[in-house]
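PT: before anyone asks, these are the final sequences, not the draft ones from last week. 235 residues across everything. Please model them as a single complex and drop the result in this thread when it's through.
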Amino acid sequence: QSVLTQPPSVSGAPGQTVTISCTGSSSNIGAGYDVHWYQQLPGTAPKYLIYANSNRPSGVPDRFSGSKSGTSASLAITGLQAEDEADYYCQSYDSSLSGSAFGGGTKLTVL
Amino acid sequence: QVQLVQSGAEVKKPGASVKVSCKVSAYTLTEVSIHWVRQVPGKGLEWMGGFNPDDGETIYAQRFQGRVTLTEDTSTDTAYMELSSLRSEDTAMYYCATAPSVVIPVSMVYFDLWGQGTLVTVSS
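LR: through. Structure below.
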């Protein structure tokens, strides 16, 4: 059981917007630690998508955006495309674990 | 451009140990901060441990403490993850990954580059 909770699945039609939540607690997100997001396409290694809550690495489309508030963070994907179908993971530091932690992952299905 | 190339798949018996390697190219090991993450088939990502610049030591996830050892060979720019007392639940893909800087605190670390993964299967 991860200290960061994500919905197991979300879905949306092409062109729509979906949001994936990452809920933590006072020992991780709520303590002010940054949240990072990864995309994992089927059969491949994860790729970083958003770092430090809302920053996009070069090459990541601006359709992807991140935000953080209180003990939660969110990843928003606008203008959904078929190639966005993947698993998405949030990650943050947890002081009670004294280490990094990942959310359980969310499978995005593009209808 | 840094690249991480991991060793090939392994099959081990319960109780044995496995050592997975991760070779860094284009940079030296002293210029990168290596961490290890595993993924049980069909499940999520689990951070196992990595370099802690706060004290220059290795930090381990609590659930793997005592069973995992992370080492580095700077002469070959290769990092290693050794997991002992293997059980069937350790069957997983093991990834090495780099943090964006060797000085970034563990509390701020994220993983900007990943190896291709090494599948470790534990079966009698």
